[in-house]
Fold this sequence. Notes:
The complex is a heterodimer.
Chain A: E1 2-6, H1 13-16, H2 43-46, E2 52-55, H3 67-74, E3 79-82, H4 87-95, E4 99-102, H5 104-109, E5 115-119, E6 124-127, E7 130-133, H6 139-147, H7 150-166
Parallel strand pairs in A: 1-2, 2-3, 3-4
Antiparallel strand pairs in A: 1-5, 5-6, 6-7
Helix pairs in contact in A: 6-7
Chain B: H1 4-13, E1 23-26, E2 30-33, H2 37-45, E3 58-61, H3 71-87, E4 92-93, H4 100-106, E5 115-118, E6 132-135, H5 138-147, E7 150-153, E8 157-163, H6 172-183, E9 192-196, H7 205-214, E10 222-224, H8 229-243, H9 247-255, E11 269-274, E12 281-283, E13 291-293, H10 294-297, E14 304-308, H11 309-312, H12 315-325, E15 335-339, H13 343-351, H14 354-360, E16 364-365, E17 386-389, E18 405-408, H15 411-420
Parallel strand pairs in B: 2-3, 2-5, 3-4, 5-6, 8-9, 8-11, 9-10, 14-15, 14-17, 15-16, 17-18
Antiparallel strand pairs in B: 1-7, 12-13
Amino acid sequence: MSKIWKYGDDINTDVIFPGKYTYSVRDPQEYPKYALEDLDPNFATQVQMGDVVVAGKNFGNGSSREQAVTCLKLAGVQAVVAVSFARIYYRNAINNGLLAITCPAAVAFAQAGDTCHIDLPNHTLYINETPFEFPPFSETAVQIMEAGGLVAFVKRKLAKEREAQTS
Amino acid sequence: MPTFAQKALARAAGLATVSVGQVVDARPDRVLSHDNTAPIAKTFSEFGLSRVPNPHRLLITLDHAAPPPTPAHAKNHQDVRRFVKQNGIQHFFEVGRGVCHQVFSEEALVLPGWTILGSDSHTPHFGWLGAFGAGIGRSEVATVWAVEELWLRVPESVQITLEGTLPAGVTSKDLCLFMIGKWGADGGLGRSVEFTGSGLASLSLESRMVIPNMMAEFGAKNAYLPPDSAVFEYLAQRLSRRTGQDLDSCRKIVSADALYPDADAHYAEKHHIDLSQLDIMVSCPHRTDNVQPMSAVRGTPIEVAFLGTCTNGRLEDLAAAAAVVKGRKAHPNIRFIIIPASSEVMLAATQLGYTQTLLEAGAMFESPGCGPCMGNHMGIPAPGEASITSANRNFKGRMGEPEAGIYLASPAVVAASAILGHIGAPQDLE
Lengths: 167, 430
């Protein structure tokens, strides 16, 4: 069962993935080692596959660095549930298949260590047993996530264009 | 009745009109990247294209860790140069030229009304000249290189009307810190922050550049200042210098696509700010919106005073610092680090004598670039130390050391603090 990690408002990209690593750590498989290093030193060693990060408003503010999303994704985090997201972080999350769910009621209810289950088709998440509905993702976001992220989405699009040209 | 954001995104999407909330496929005029070009190029290679279709749209600098401090950084730069060469990218600027936003402004590579997307969160910077600038992720830059368009949601807009003139010693940095302190780090979350009002004309161009840059710390998608004749002349001179075209032709080119919001445009919020009522402000650790008046932080001990970055590393910033420190010496406990935002700034500061004045006061100069702003380069603080900087972010660990507090302020306050050995204003030196 997915476990919740709970944090506060305005969690910025520097505490999610410190800037000093952005050009020196070049292998994505290394990113999870530094996830939330300056926020929660226990996170990187204890996070489990499928866990969920719950936080307050303006999650992911600051730098555009995509590693702030991929470090969580590669650490096994399936979703961030927040009161609101900084806009570049939100886009980076969609583009890398990390669920960025805006749901203030769930944030207010959730405690660290609670369990979380996400029913994406019905855009409902369960904290322990309590259900919370969240707004559905935009059509564009769904298409990107279904393709497996933006890079896969663009690859598919370019392949279709090539096919159309040759036929 | 469209806002600036609506007009700019309609233009970028090739549509007559767009409405707030609409998702459009925007074709940016320019795509910005810097040291992160290397990992973006790696992603781009997955698309199976032999080359970037329109390399003239790409703007690239090496600024984030320049010159490279480690072999890993040097390799990263080498990868960028290889990509630049393979793709015939003409708008590439080497190590030492300066910070991307400053350099592309100086080179008139972004013009009023254009759209620029970049893998740098301070891309809203280009709002100073009336462009639509927004930050995007690395995967998105690779995407725009390949397919030349990207989905963007048309944002709500906020109108900020500036009236009056700033008191002596108060700067546009203080205006930004005031706004972020008053309305929060998410005060403009996802919105287009559009400035207007009679107060704008009183601000120098370099002071104006600070404003949309700092609106990144307000959560803004983009920010906008209406371009006036001073903006057009700045750009025309520089376009002429870069391309060799005559000045009159350049004057026509730089204003051709300028956009202004309609007088009856709809804004989600409207605020008025009387510049004459503003005071010196300081943003305190570890939140940009933890903004205090000077009286609340005066006397706080510091070890590092850093003047530079895309926010406040320009000629007028160095001039302000030189005026403060002239005939004085930096406090012996202080490392006073100055990094001009570009080589053009550094040369002009040298010709005008500011460099000498600052060096005589005990400052050290580093080559143009981002420096220690995001903890990548020269000037990292030690645990327990505090820095005062003219930069834009004071998040925990931002300058590389999580146990070091960062205070954000105007260039004159950074300079005065370097002399005092603690946080203070220029008038505290008298």
